[in-house]
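Throughout our pipeline, every protein is held as a single compact record rather than as scattered files. Nothing more is needed to write down the fold, since each code stands for a local backbone conformation. For reference, a complete record is included directly beneath this paragraph.
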Amino acid sequence: MSLKRQGIRAFFSLFVFILFAGQPTFLAAQTALCGGNLGDNNFSAGDFGSGMSNVVQANPGLAPGFQYTTQVPPDDGEYTLTNNINAWSYVYPTWLRVGDNDVNPNGYMMVVNASFAPGIFYEQVIDNLCENTLYEFTADVINLIRTGTTGHILPNVSFLLDDVLSYSSGQIPQDEDWHTYGFTFTTGPGQFAVKLSLRNNAPGGTGNDLALDNISFKACGPASSITIAPAGKICENSLFPILTAVIDADTGALQWQLSINNGVNWNDIPGATDRTYQVEQVAAGSYFFRYLYSNSLSSINNPKCRIVSDEILVQVVPVTFLIRDTVCEGVTVELGGMEYGETGIYQALLTASNGCDSLVTLDLVVFPDPPIVADFGSSPASCEGADDGTIFLASVSGTRPPFIFIVNDSIIPPPNTLINAPAGTYTARIENEFGCFDEGTVIVDDGPRFDISTIEDTMIILGHSVLLTTQTNLPAASASWTPAANMNCPVCLSTTVTPVSDETYVIEAVTEQGCSDKDSVTIRVDRTPVIYVPNVFSPNGDDINDYFSVTTDPLNISSIDEVLIFDRWGGIIARTSSLMNDETVVLWDGNTPHGAALTGIYVYLITFTLADGSIRSAHGDVTLLR
């Protein structure tokens, strides 16, 4: 049972196919699959077809007693055809997001949500069969519950022939793989139709969800292959081979077939019904042969009653060739180890490794060499090492398109007459269809070296920032600084950095054409606290030096955490903490909890935090005057 959109429900999804009808007393079912050759699949709709729509909109009418739905996932008693569960807007959490089991990404499978009680969910009658004939029925099945999901019922499907149990899939494993289930059966005397029923044996409830695809119903026969004598490739106009049907049966009828398009289409060979077939003389090419086999001559033309043999390829190699060629004056053509450069007809007997010696006739026409004049140009690379220099055809006379533009023996695909190239020396060539040409040397100059430079090494006070400016001689497409810590823009050419310790920064910049350069700068940090403490003050109310104050660098010292004032005997007479730091900070006004302090010398201890978070202190004495 899976989670419904608004609750819990049980369902059983099944992809199904169809088979046969007839009289049960004439059938013999076998659980083993076919051990010989099979016929063509008699169910063209066994893979449920294909389409661009995720769900088939028209009711296919495949499951009597069930309601077809296009609202997925289907409810109890409903079914649908889909090519991919993963494309549904909602999928039960325990289900696989599985697609059709076929190389066609748009192929369909059938999903049925069965009822709670075990019972028949699909029936189909198949007719026009042959009596006393072995058939194989198979289908691909997958358990839709994800591996690792516990407490779910494993599906189990039985196949009934004419209402008699003939095969059971058993429990379908929860392993996220498709499995092929099937069996063979033999029709009895006078048996020409069969009814197939599919029954859900697992009880409804949690789980019991599966998919079905690629249903196949084929005639099954003996192992059927072909031998050929002589073997190997056949020379055109030679003695053609004999094909022999090798069939693991003493009786039966057969029909040889031929395909001239790599097995896409097959045609009967008239009169070729013996177990041996002499291949007729055919033109050079590739030919596929096979044969159809049936128990009797009367059933050989019934696609539901015959099997198909293995295929064999006969390759016929040509032995005569005619070559017509026109070349420019001064160009030669090689044939049989000889070079020919004048108009005429030439022949050579060439020996082939496959034994099919060939007579080659060359009909050669020599074309007068026209005064082809080509002018090639170039432009330098944008920067040193870039590959965006160009080689181009500026003009050409003495011929017209189509002609071939060649650079260093590489043909430039037409109609291009300009290519990018790194710096170097090249040979450019224009050649017409007869091999007449003009060529020249082209030099692509290198571009300027890409150079970047940042500031010189420098020292700053802890807490202060420094601007790292960078200059380039060519436009930079990107830049990056390392390390990027305490930097406001690690991908800018110029940026501000606030290091807390000595650090070397490296910048790399790259042009749009891929040229790059690096530079570095070392910033040293003076970690000496910037704080000035006076040694005397006079709190007498004359507004002159009335307070014990310190002068600091707010960027260097982030906070003054605590100030202690001691008398001559070591007693604490004043304490302040968490002072806001500014350039001037008042530490003591000269008073104690017991009144104004007397004139004298007092000891202080100042604790403060630097910009890097470290705790420091300063101590000494200060004279108070009244």
Observations:
- Residues 205 and 212 are 20 Å apart (CA to CA).
